[in-house]
User: Fold these one by one.
Assistant:
Number 1:
Amino acid sequence: QVHFVESGGGLVQPGGSLRLSCAASGSIFSISAMGWYRQASGKQRELVAAIRSGGSTNYADSVKGRFTISRDNAKNTVYLQMNRLKPEDTATYYCKAVIRTAAQMREYDYWGQGTQVTVSS
């Protein structure tokens, strides 16, 4: 099975920065993509940023220019650097990875437990 360790969330003032980390471990054969989603109270879950094994990235329009996603393939870890945070960034942030385990014939989506980000003065 796959296990995620997510860290970096917390309370920050508007305009501040946070860096989220998500490390995947377990019987992993390959990870083709990793990313971050978020869900604010009363709102639909949305893609924040994603990065594929080849290095291509996607960002939500609301965070483009403020957030940067990166990954360390050797450590099966994805990062999200969040700058110039706004109150509307407040949400639970979930790590997602597209993973093939050693015993699987196909890839599946795996999700972390989520980490809370609160932007408030």
Number 2:
Amino acid sequence: QVRLEESGGGLVQAGGSLTLSCSASGSIGGSTIMGWWRQAPGKQRALVATVSSSGKTNYADSVRGRFTISRDNAKNTVWLQMNLLKPEDTAVYYCYEGSPVRSSWGQGTQVTVSS
């Protein structure tokens, strides 16, 4: 069905920037949500940001003002631009794509922010 391919994770110093990307293959429909969740060891997976096919965005309070999510509907691709990174942003970041009837997850990409 829908397969998500993530890229862009890595190691960055506090205050630096990193951009994640995720491309969805297959037919995802005309109205879907794409976004990013993250999970640190021993913690719950938490929402980072989402964007609808119409461009509406939603951000976690912890990243609002620092992260920017965007998507290209024609390419079925979503990006997460992360600025002013903090050590507490360190986590595995998972790409998400979904609709009211289904959802898909990427395998995750590690983001590590050093202090």
Number 3:
Amino acid sequence: QLQLVESGGGLVQPGGSLRLSCAASGFTLDYYAIGWFRQAPGKEREGVSCISSDGTSTDYADSVKGRFTISRDNAKNTVYLQMNSLKVEDTAVYYCAAMAAWPPIAVSMNRGEYHYWGQGTQVTVSS
């Protein structure tokens, strides 16, 4: 079974931090670009950040640039999203997704290009 499992979500105050993890099972992430997406109530799913399979290229939505950092540890088959200076507007369900990609530097924020998706983890930023 090919599976991605997100963890690390929860309730945090504005200005706080969370680190989300995306762990893969059933396959290795070595050849996959990984994207983080989020969906807030009443809104479409949007790209947050992505990282190439070799870890050399990243991309961020303007709304999170400078606050969020994506990283990966292929040896642990895990991708992370460090979220700092969280805002109420960051409240959403966050999804991890994997995209088989070539060349290794390729990244994409287009959710249609991602093959495998996790179940999502809730992030709530509230006072």
